[in-house]
Amino acid sequence: MFLPHPSNAGWVDEFLEEAAAFPTGRYDDQVDAMTQALIRLRSTEAFFTVPESRFTINPYTIPEGWPRVFAMTMMRDRVVALWAARDPNGTICLYAEHQLPHTEPSENARAIKAQGDWIPGIINCFAGSIAEHYAVAQMYQSLGLKVEYVAPGPEAGMAQFWQLLATNKLKVFASLSMFLSEYRIGDYESPFLRCCQALLLSGRDRMRTKYPKIRVPIEPTYHGPQSWMA
């Protein structure tokens, strides 16, 4: 375990003193937090086997012709979303993310539509019955999202995730700080990683391209004695 140098982080000296004095020291709050964090890291999946440098890329403008899709995950206290696009070579790129610390539907729908209200989406929920999940999807449909409910499949989704990483067919914008933070923790049940699993398992078949609207020329109307010639 590595700690920052005390000259860069003022809390380090006090933390080391508390750790050195444990268990007979006066305070143990930081030691308790550290041990819980280490237990969690040791008991989660080994996401660290693939370094971020292998799949993170600098952000760029996604070409209009690339098919896209997004996934939403509904929590009790927040809503998160993740967007993916597919390049002509079949590589999947995760390029945008969304999170609000509440589940108010209209505000979440407005923020998600801002990425492109034509982009289709899928939704999965952490709790509730299947009927309730469908009801949530219908509510967001009424707010203008092209979204449908899909049942989660974490095992299959993770298999797709690892396969794409192994074949260099998954890229992630370095600007997706929330997704990358959950990747570092390694809990595949975390919201953004659940979104990623849903995208790879069910979203790729639902990807759509924004087709440009074709303007139909309007024939001019002529009036006058020679209008019959038009």
Could you walk me through the main structural features you see in this protein, from its secondary elements to its overall organization?
Strands 1-7-4-3-2-5-6 form a 7-stranded mixed β-sheet, with helices on both faces. Strand 5, helix 4 (130-142) and strand 6 form a beta-alpha-beta unit. The protein is α/β, with parallel strands linked by helices and 230 residues long. The radius of gyration is 24 Å and the shape is globular. The model has no long low-confidence stretch (mean pLDDT 84). The protein contains 7 helices and 7 strands, in the order H-H-E-E-E-E-H-E-H-E-H-E-H-H. Helix 5 crosses helix 7. The chain folds into 2 domains: 12-43, no CATH class; 52-206, Nucleotidyltransferase, domain 5 (2-Layer Sandwich), CATH 3.30.420.280. Helix content is 36%, strand content 17%. The longest helix is centred in the first third of the chain and has 15 residues, at 29-43.
Q: Write down the CATH topology of the largest domain.
A: Nucleotidyltransferase, domain 5
Question: Strand content of the residues, in percent?
Answer: 15-25%
Identify the strand order in the major beta sheet: 1-7-4-3-2-5-6
The CATH architecture of the largest domain = 2-Layer Sandwich
Count all strands and give the number. Answer: 7
Fill in the keyword field for this structure:
Nucleotidyltransferase, domain 5; 17% strand; 2 domains; alpha/beta; 7-stranded mixed beta sheet
